[in-house]
Amino acid sequence: MKSFFKTASICLLVALTLVPLYLLLGTAAAQEELPPRKKTLITRLGAKVTAYKLFNPFLPGYRGETGHGNVVQEYLFYQNLLNGSVIPWLATRWEYGPEYKNMTIYIRKGVKWSDGKPFTAHDVAFTYNMLRKYGAKLAYGAWANATIKNAVALDDYTVYIEFTYPNPRHHYQLLYNIWAIPIVPKHIWEKVDPTTFKNYPPVVTGPYELVSASPETFIWKRRDDYWAKEVLGVFPEPEYLVFTGIGPAEKAMIEQIKGRMDVWCDFTKSQYEEIMSKNPKVKAWTILAPCPRALWINNDPSHYPLNMSEVRWAINYAINKTKLSLVAYEGLSWPADLPLPEYGALDYWRNALKKAGVLSKYNITVYDPDKAISILKNLGFKRGPDGVWVTPDGKRLSFVIIAPPWTGHKEMAMSIADDLNAIGIETFYKVVEPAPFDNAWSTGSYDMLIGWCCGVGLSSAWDPYGWLIKFHSKWLTPIGERAPDNWARYKNPEFDAILDQLAAKEPKDPDALPLYVEAFRIWLRDLPIIPTVHSVLTVTYDYTYWENYPSEENPYMMPLHWWPNYLFTVLHVKRVSRPEAPPPIPWGTYIAVAIAVIVIVTAAVIVYRRRVKLA
Fold this sequence. Notes:
Blueprint: H1 2-32, E1 40-46, H2 68-72, E2 77-79, E3 86-88, E4 91-96, E5 102-107, H3 121-134, H4 141-147, E6 148-155, E7 158-163, H5 170-173, H6 186-189, E8 208-213, E9 217-222, H7 227-231, E10 240-246, H8 249-257, E11 263-264, H9 269-278, E12 282-288, E13 293-297, H10 309-318, H11 321-329, H12 347-355, H13 358-361, H14 369-378, E14 382-383, E15 389-390, E16 398-403, H15 409-422, E17 426-431, H16 434-443, E18 448-452, H17 465-468, H18 493-503, H19 513-526, E19 529-531, E20 536-542, E21 546-547, H20 566-572, E22 574-575, H21 587-614
Parallel strand pairs: 1-10, 16-17, 16-18
Antiparallel strand pairs: 2-3, 4-5, 5-7, 6-7, 8-9, 9-10, 11-20, 12-20, 13-18, 13-19, 14-15, 21-22
Helix pairs in contact: 1-21, 3-4, 8-9, 10-14, 11-15, 18-19
């Protein structure tokens, strides 16, 4: 018996030593996991972020959908594309001077940066002048140079901006549009080189501060001293924001089915229907997004013969856009006849184009492979031994389409490649991660790619000028250098001259309408890129922990979570009320108890065997 107690005591001592160790390991593991689920709003990130410590919104490689650009980097104004309303935020109002030659912006009092410093007119003036100074070296810099002559802080709450030309559109080009110019804190940025500064960790005005960042996960914690809590009486309920989750759609489906993902927007119709059938707490909202999808084509002469409008029209006729809608959107979408969304706000211009016969003459929705072949023959192209078209000077029509990793885009590239191969244009496709995709697009380092038709700051959702101005040749840079815009490398002096006339006219000035019509006539005739199908997006929300998301029944804001407007979803969601559940037992506790039981049973067995042996 004495031997039993001695052995049992030793084993118990081992167990008591291992239990705290495993409890400690369990706690450490928990600390590396996500914040408490019921306090956290989780949004899927979608793709790995290579430069995960880059929070400088002016540099290539920056990804704003990490919580920085879509929540905490606040803007002077926001616009709700669902109803056209303007939401004053860091500023309260603006007013134009005579003949739209200047503007005065009035900054909201009481706004503070996350380091406690006040947000003032000096920050706004500094940001605009910094962009003017560095120009095309920074995103928005070329635009600032083209439109702003000078920016001055008249006092702490008043900014005066002088334009380079009469500009009645400045308010939606640079203020309340999607992805407007981000304002940065002067007291920090005036001491750094903005062309190399990473801005990590970021100082912001928004309601959260960065906890951690990695290629796959960004965690933000709510700031109790958020300025809008006192000034506007708004404060978000989620204590934490997590942007995470990469990989294939099948993996994301599991995450939302299991209740580990609150917000996402990249599932196909069949995928989100399956999710909702397995998790009844998930609801979906399908919307027509403002950016039709398109096949972007490199118009630079170095990419001959893609720089020929006849070849681009041949490619257009070869694409079956009805099939494209089926493979990319499972039939929810339809062919686009313009690089614009079918929004009521654009009917004024669309009706004018119809009346002028522009849309009937240049009908890009027509699928006619025979006509495509006829165009190539008329150009003197001939098929080689392998059936691929060859130009008179021996250039084979062989191209690569690149696509980003988002749902539907690879499918579009595959479908278009099949259509082009069918008529003798050899076409390959490949999927590229967001950062190198953006680099190839902006530097002109591509043949063709699957992109989107988004005007400047999405202003093309209410004024087509926001789309047309993207193709002005003043934005051109040599191939290999990042261009501020005109990533199709299109050049037409006649087109430029019309845009220059439009720039100083109000959108619905009667004298402007003929200029719009003529600009679109030229654009469609030359067809620098090919609009394909409208973008129909479905957002899925899990109502297990949070409710009051934007929805068809409660459409208080555009629901897309990578836009800056996502701030208002974060501010509106409410915690779901339910009886308090007991806290889950840490997995380390289970392991510790199991070890203790095993050790004690083992001790008992050892003692029993010894007694049997002695007997």
